[in-house]
Amino acid sequence: MKLGIALPLAGRLYDKEFWISFMMMDKPDYTLLLPRVEVYNFAVDIAGIRNDLVKQALDEGIDRLFMMDTDQVYPVGTVKQMLSHDMQVVSAPVHRRYPPFDVIMLRGEIGKYIHVSEDEIYSGKLVEVDATGTGCICFDMSIFKDFDPPWFEIKIGSDGNPIGEDIGFCSRLRKAGVKIYVDTSVEVDHMATMMVNKQTYHVFKKLNGYEWRQQGDNFNE
Asked: Cβ-count burial of 208 within 10 angstroms (0-12 exposed, 13-18 middle, 19+ buried)?
């Protein structure tokens, strides 16, 4: 089995926590794949990045392709745990890095998705879904040969909302009868940077029932 690990790099600066976790991971022999395309805007270019990585994997004769986003921190056993499943597509649960911080584990179809229950998300079991994110995911490369490229595309749905490249590809897979699983025993941390301002403060107060009163330089909750 020839393994490829693909890092969809975008930009020039990457957090050291990712690199530390990547270097510390227990990994079998692998081929490292990096984008060959210029990246100007991650949100716009991510589909092209993923397509380029898949093309490289096909050219290299890769059997299993592991995509790992670089704004995440991974447990040491991530790669071997996910490779232990004889599945065409298996992902790890990743929380969004912005509110409501939910895990992208969905059932249904585009325009009619519902979230998987938290009982399943945090069950530690292998859970079948209809759509998930591609931040930490392992593909059997044979599935890409059944579809014409581009495999990943950002589109606009009938309701006018964007459809991410990950959800769009999952939809194509499910229509073709490919099953998608999430190994909920793998806990990946998603790193985030946020702007803190007046609105942030008021949302925080509303959600947490937070109140304080000034006492010189001190305050009480």
From this structure: exposed
Kindly give the pairing relationship between strand 126-129 and strand 180-183: antiparallel
Whole-model pTM?
A: 0.86
Tell me if residue 127 falls in helix, strand or coil: strand
Where does the pLDDT of residue 186 fall: very low under 50, low under 70, confident under 90, or very high at 90 and above? Answer: very high
Give the CATH number for residue 106.
3.90.550.40
Contacts of 129 (CB under 8 A, 6+ apart): 105, 106, 107, 116, 180, 181, 182
Which amino acid is present at 197? N
In sequence order, which residues have a C-beta less than 8 Å from that of residue 207 and are 6 or more positions away? Answer: none
Q: List Cβ neighbours of 167 (8 Å cut-off, separation of 6 or more).
A: 104, 106, 110, 113, 131
Strand partners, 118: none
Q: Which residues contact 57 (CB under 8 A, 6 or more apart)?
A: 4, 6, 33, 65, 141, 144
* For range 146-162, the mean pLDDT: 89
Residue 70: inside a domain, yes or no? yes
pLDDT at 78 over 70: yes
Nearest to 93 by CA among 46, 127, 50: 127
Domain encompassing residue 121 = 3-192
H or E stretch including 102?
A: none
